[in-house]
């Protein structure tokens, strides 16, 4: 049997499996959808201003996923651009269906020991109504809160695609994305953001996803860099030469713009905390961009548009857990410190150790880790700057725990997927083709 015939057979099996999953979800939707319109009577007064802001923030966060597609797409070769961008876009469809099916319930359903939500409570969005929720969304509809959180769930597995750029099959990534969401993202969202989550109850502060989004993606990506390696696939390991820097800059601008919804929207209200998060987000990104460029110059390298773009994203990553808890002055330090550390990790030649195509670990794993630790340093309530040590050590412990959890669980996921479908494509592309 020729290799092309084998590829066609695998693609056919993947298509049948994907179609079966979709039909199963649609069947559950028809079977379990409420037969009556949910009551719109709020359990507490709905705040129109808060609702308008969270609606806007939800749209801003969704914009980040296409922004990420441009950001990553511009960093790879022209023939690989479409495939790389598609891996981000497909996340919007797959994760949305998964979130409706069981994801929101696992992340924000009634807590089962602080580790996960009851999967049956909001199964197929039953009970996710236009009413407010006293614990999760006291001034906005619960369904709006669920939609806002969905956008975070969408972009997180998309972040990992920078590790797989140029090598992973689309079908394999879809399975990886589903398992990552169920086994890593949703438990971490519950631990961190649910009122009874283990990290939340312990007192760990993560305003908008330093652990849930960036560290989970970064360390899952690190595991992928070891497992899905060009060396293991028999392909030559070559330095990736960006083919479209304007796309990278466009993606950076979309990410920066959307990040205001990501961080400031996490206040879930149009209030002073949202304004603070908005300001610290912009300031940290600016400080990180400038610091990256200056560090390059100090190291004898030329300043570059690509470096400025990457630096600003690292700043956005690092400020995410701290954005609503620190002062504007502290955000300058957080952005600058994270930028220099991430740059230094790349400078040390981490690619000689792990095959991380677009430096996902150095940007998101390291940036998120630094941001979580520095939140424990600069938090206005309980940080080291206030003379207290408890919060800092909790953040260090939480960061280490989340790192190990995401890394180990990701290794398990890659192994499970490899038993079902080959992880690698053959490394060849035709312009305009998406390799399955």
Kindly describe this structure.
It is a single chain. This protein has 436 residues and is mainly α. Helix content is 67%, strand content 3%. The strands form two sheets. The protein has a two-stranded antiparallel ribbon. Strands 3-4 form a two-stranded antiparallel ribbon. The longest helix has 31 residues, at 78-108. The radius of gyration is 21 Å and the shape is globular. 54% of the residues are buried.
- Work out the radius of gyration: 21 Å
Q: Look at the structure and give the mean pLDDT.
A: 88
The order of strands across the largest sheet is 1-2
Q: Into which percent range does the helicity of residues fall?
A: 55-70%
Brief summary:
By secondary structure, the chain is an all-alpha fold. The chain has helices at about 5-30, 50-75, 80-110, 140-165, 170-195, 200, 210-225, 230-235, 245-265, 270-300, 305-320, 330-345, 360-380, 390-420, and strands at about 110, 115, 130-135, 135-140.
Structural descriptors:
two-stranded antiparallel sheet, mainly alpha, two-stranded antiparallel ribbon, 4 strands, 436 residues
What's the topology here?
Layout: H1 3-32, H2 48-73, H3 78-108, E1 111-112, E2 116-117, E3 132-133, E4 137-141, H4 142-164, H5 170-193, H6 198-202, H7 210-227, H8 230-233, H9 245-264, H10 272-298, H11 305-319, H12 328-347, H13 360-378, H14 390-420
Antiparallel strand pairs: 1-2, 3-4
